[in-house]
Amino acid sequence: MQKKYKIFGVVLTVLISCISIQAQTVTAYKDVLLNGKAARLNLKTGEFIFTDSKGNDSIVKAKRPDEDNSLDRLNYHVVESGEKLLDISEQYGLTLKEIKDANSLKTTLVSVGQKLRVRNFEQLEQKKEDNVWVVSKGQTLYSISKKTGVSIKTIKRLNGLKNNTLAIGQKLYLK
Length: 175
Fold this sequence. Notes:
The protein is about 40% helix and about 20% strand. By secondary structure, the chain is an alpha+beta fold. A 4-stranded antiparallel sheet has the order 1-2-3-4, with no helix packed on it. The model has no long low-confidence stretch (mean pLDDT about 75).
């Protein structure tokens, strides 16, 4: 009789162990919004999964201990070998136009190691506005240069100016 209980105890222990191992391998997801887009967060790995318009999932790289996980780094994607702009745009739930506009790209060609902005485009717009000067009445290249700290030569080169003539409302790039 004791042998039956021992065998039953061993079988029960093995069964409970198998169930607990199986329970640990079940992946838990949480529905979240990532940059205004519906996504699922894998609670175990930290991966975000977007669903595109066709119902396909795309995985955004998981956190790794050796990676920089600062918010600024998460705004960019570094192109790896074999990646195309279309693949990258789908990975982040963007259209080709959005990613091209945000990165001032004229074509869809990208190169390995190229850094592409893929999130928080409103921050990019703010930075662009900081680099543009709108000429007001009475301003000259000299006065703009003094206020911004950008040399006259640089302002002329960036804006393709042949002489020092400016117009009110003219936009000048400073960087």
